[in-house]
Specification:
Distance between the termini: 26 Å
Order of helices and strands: EHHHHHEHEEEEE
Structural class: alpha+beta
Radius of gyration: 16 Å
Largest sheet: 5 strands, antiparallel
Number of helices: 6
Strand order of the largest sheet: 1-7-6-3-2
Helix content: 25-40%
């Protein structure tokens, strides 16, 4: 798990997301998975589900064979940001927002520790097969100890 200061810059956060993307592009799902804790009330994410969400274009839980039968394809792969001509466009599209949730909002989102949520990230335009896609990775920004924060993986889906 990577811990950042609460006043981390946009660049610091983007560098973590670039590292995560590079691991996914290298198909190192276990390593990518352990970079961030997970908090998704709808699904208990695993490295395999992360892989499945990528090769199915946002439909985690299917084997490649099932996805091939259901969707006609299961050949999507994450693409390196570092070598992509779309790198700047993708990084500019990543939305990082800071906010405070009320107890009511936290309960509506099924968050157990809503008081630690200080913002979220929408990583839009995730690169698949060398092209911009509408696959989006979402993360919470959560307080960690006194003056630190962590990115917490929510999900990877098509918006």
């Amino acid at each position: 798990m990577h811990i950042l200061p609460q006043n981390a810059s946009r660049e610091d956060i983007l560098n973590l997301l670039i590292t995560w993307t590079e691991l996914l592009a290298q198909e190192k799902y276990d390593e990518a998975f352990v970079m961030f804790p997970c908090d998704c009330p709808d699904l208990e994410w695993t490295p395999w589900l992360l892989e499945s969400a990528i090769y199915t274009y946002g439909c985690p839980g299917y084997t490649r064979e099932e996805a091939e039968r259901e969707f006609g394809s299961a050949d999507y792969k994450a693409t390196s940001l570092l070598s992509s001509p779309y790198k700047d466009e993708v990084l500019e599209a990543i939305k990082i927002e800071y906010f405070t949730l009320t107890q009511e909002q936290g309960k509506a989102m099924l968050l157990k520790d809503y008081e630690n949520v200080i913002g979220d990230i929408h990583y839009d335009k995730f690169l698949l097969n060398g092209k911009i896609s509408d696959l989006t990775a979402r993360f919470w920004l959560k307080k960690w100890e006194e003056d630190r924060m962590v990115l917490v993986f929510q999900d990877l889906h098509v918006m």
